[in-house]
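Let us practice reading a record.
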Amino acid sequence: MKSVVFEAPKQPVVKELPRPEIGENEVLIEMAAVGICHSDYELLDGRYIIPISYPVTPGHEWSGRIAALGKSAHGFEIGDRVTGECVVELPDALHHFGFSLDGAYSQYFKARPEWLHKLPDAVDNLTASLIEPFTCGYYAIKKAGGTDASQTVVVSGGGTIGLMAAAAAIGSGARTIVIDPIARRRDAAMKLGAEMTFDPTDGDLIAKVMAATDGVGADLVVEASGHDASLGVVFDLVREEGRIAMVGINIGRAITAQLGKIQSRNLTIVGCIGSPGVWPDAIKFLERTKLDLSPIRTHVFPLENALEALEQGRRADECIKVTITNKF
């Protein structure tokens, strides 16, 4: 089988490997589609947030079908279409699938049934490979108290997770505004159903958000960029007694922000990472709302061209989500 292997930092290869042997409580999965995540580049560059050993096959945003079952692997049948969670548990410890365990950049890979979720017919394989990042955006909205058609949500940062948070807000009926300096991302937000977008480098962003919300501010702001400039103004985009979900990663840097506004404006701030406990609900949400996430997926490559896909994914101004596919 073909597999992408990061043999060492900055050394990706596509190579032929034996099909994995599965244990009695494991399943063999034939990959259908897998998304390239920003964290895959951190792995490739040798600076992921947990200790990693090489060689490793990446890939944690995936869809596929079950090709074989171990004798003790219950709850699924051969041919079931599935996706799976990123943070998974083994007897020794928690692991990150595609990081501390080999992942889905491969024609076949193994997993355990408790990590998996069946896919409804209404969610196709390409959309299903977006479920993992969608759950992160969905979790941010849910952890911050949810939203509905009576509210306005502002998402600061239109990368994959920001756009997924916007999609979750749009699917919930909320009036949604997305802020990002890259035109392609703003265009994708509009195609998802955002009411408007703003370029934060073009004029007074706070004034624009206030004008768009009748001088009140957003009911909920999702900070999904992690950029210093966004974190410096996020408290000025939300209404009195509003909510802010902090999703963007900004670890190890000190920035200037008026934290006193949290108290003086009676704000509720939640920090969000990952998507614990929401996968079944998020999948049902996608099935029932029929959200079209395809504007986020800008490039598709076959597995044999995975190295080209990885190069494309580094061009943030040209793409959002790059997807690798395997023909059944």
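A brief commentary: The longest strand covers residues 27-35.
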